[in-house]
Structure formats: structure tokens, C-alpha cells
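Entry 14. Ran structure prediction on the chain below.
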Amino acid sequence: KSIHEIIHSASPDGIEPRESAQRLTDVVTDGAPYQSSHDWFRRKDGSFVAVEYNCKPLLLLNRIEGAVLSFRDITDRIAVERALRVSEQRYRNLVDKSRGLICTHDLTGKLISVNEAAAELLGVTPEEIIGKNLLNFLVRGSEGEFHSYLNKIAEWGVHRGLMRVVSGQGEELVWSYSNKLMSEPGQAPYVLGHAHDVTSQMEVERELRETKEMLRISLENEKSLSRIDFLTKIPNRRAFYEATELELQRARRYKRPISTIYIDIDNFKCVNDTLGHEIGDQLLRNVAETLRTRTRECNLVARFGGDEFGILLAETGAEGGLAAARNLRNALTKLASENHWPVSFSIGVATFLDAEQSVDEMIASADELMYEVKKAGKDSVASRVVTRSRAQEVAIHSVGGKACNPIGDAGSQ
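Output, C-alpha cells:
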């Protein structure tokens, strides 16, 4: 038998190694040396050993008498290479079939590889992407952010963030990525990128933010409406209490006076009973508007309920409070006269110099003065300076008689 028949009959996959056998024969016949990088020899027990070998002609007196072969066992190396190929194929299958978006690119952004999921999402094939720059797939105006990303990942080695890309159909997508700089011996550095599509999630989050904002506005509106009188559209008693509490704190801090006006519409029931509730509502709206337009912006006009109104005068002493009340009464009297409403106005003005009182005490003081006016005949203004130590009553200032039609004074309600 030939040496080849003895040690080199077949490869492990059963394929006859005719090519290598022929080359061994050629060495003997032609004298051309041959080097095999990978071949299989069969052991005596039938197992195979991977070898690489050199075959040179054996010369005697310039005649080829045979061949000299030298062998090296590379079974372990072949096993490692085969395992590596299997591993690489498994990795490639995993990458290609992964729903995650995986790619590699160099430090200029040129794409080296991309998996099927990323290509499919962009509406192209992997072959159409490879070799192109990642920037080509980003939304317009991304140049600055993209070059910043390249600089940072080259410097830091890792980078995470959001990337806005455009699909083949022109749809804008948002990808969340986590990329890493890779360095392997003998290869130029490259970036391994992994991302997932968060477009739907971002849309849901945007809608959630919009819903929260609408809810916030709705709650603010509801909160605002809870402090606004529905009929007259001016602040209500609750808003007046809150504003007065804040103003009291400021008055105490800066030692400023503060005044409160309490207004009651005399004979308001006459209007509702004789002219109807629609006229009564219109009267209340007009009174509120008159008070609002004739009061400084830094002061507050509120409807306490029914036919009663309150006014908070910041940094206003006794003279200023009394003057403001008289001016308001004159304007209201003119309003009633022009509309032929059989009403007048009882007004109490309480001024606080030390601001040591509570909101309830302030309103109660002005309310008490208003009722003193009513007892004295209505249609007047009364003022008083109130301190914690003593109360100094100024006077009841009568500025007109009762204003009721011939039906009679039905009282205030």
C-alpha cells in the first residue's frame, strides 16, 4: 500500500482528499514542493488527526527518489477555529433574528454591519445600509448632535441617549441606544451599537404629559372657579378671606394700615319681589362691575353672598377708607338712579392700624358698622378705626336718605 492509503484515506466528513493526494504525487513526479495548511490523517484506531505538513522532493544525485514529509498536529487549533465559526454563526443568527436594533460603525459613523431588524425598521435591506453613514438616516438638523456623539463615544468609550431617525417611508422614529467602543488586536476601533424603538413609548409619554397638563389646567380652573362668584364673576367670600390673610401678614410686617369695606344693598328684596329675579341678578352684576372698575387694582372686590359685598383696601388708613367708601356709594347711587332701581347702600368701613386682628375680626368690625347704618336709617357710610387696645368710633356719616319706591321699605335681604 502507498503511504497515503495507510494514513490519509479520507477526511472526517467522508470526502476523499483526492486534491491533496494528487499534490503529494506531483512532488515526486515534478519535484515541486507542497505545503498543506490543513489536512487530515487517519490514526490506526480509525480516528482522525488534523495536520499541516510540508512535502519536499527527496533528491539523490539530482534524481527524485521520493519525498520528505514533515507534519504538525493542529487538531486543537482546528477544534478552536471550528468552535469559533459555530459561535460566530450563532451570534450572527442571534443578531439577525433579534428584535433589538444592532449595528457597528467606525468612528466617522460609516456603517460596517447592521442586523435585519434595524434594516427592516428603516425600510431597507442590510446591503443597502452597509457602507453608508449613519448620519444619512437621522432627521435633518442632527449634524451637531451626531458629531458630538462621535466625539464623546471616542473619548468616553460608551454613550447612551435618544436618536431620531427617518424610515424609508419618511416616518420619524425615536431609538433609545446604548453604544460601546470596541477595540480588537489588529483592527481599527469600531462602535457596537444596540438600540430599541421607543417611538410608541415616546408618543404615549407625550400624550400622558398632555393629559397631565390638561388635568393641571382643569384643576387650576376648578380651583379658580371655586373662588369666583358664578353670577357676578368677581371673587367670592373664600377668595376674600385668603387674600385678606395674606395682606394682613404684609401689613404686620411693614407696619401698614389696612381697611375693609362692607356693603349691603338696602331694599334689595323690593327689586326681586316687584321687578323679578332677572332684574335682581342684573342689579348684582352691575353693582359688582361698578365696584370693580372704581377700585384700584391692588385692592380686592368680592361678593360675600346675597346682596352683600366686601372690599379690601391695602395700605389704606381711615381717611382713605372713608373717602373710597363715599366715592363708591356715589357711583352706586347714580347706577341705581339711572336704572330706576329702588335701592340704596349701607356701608361700613373698618380701619386697622396695627393689623393684629384676624380676618374674621376685620370683617365682623366692618359688618357691625354696616348694620349700625341700617339701624340709623340706611343709605349711609360709617367708619371706625379699630385697634387691639381700644376702639375709636369716628361717627356715622349720613350722606343721604332712604331710597325706596312708594311701595315701602321692605328691608334688606
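The two ends are 133 Å apart (CA to CA). Will compare against last week's run tomorrow.
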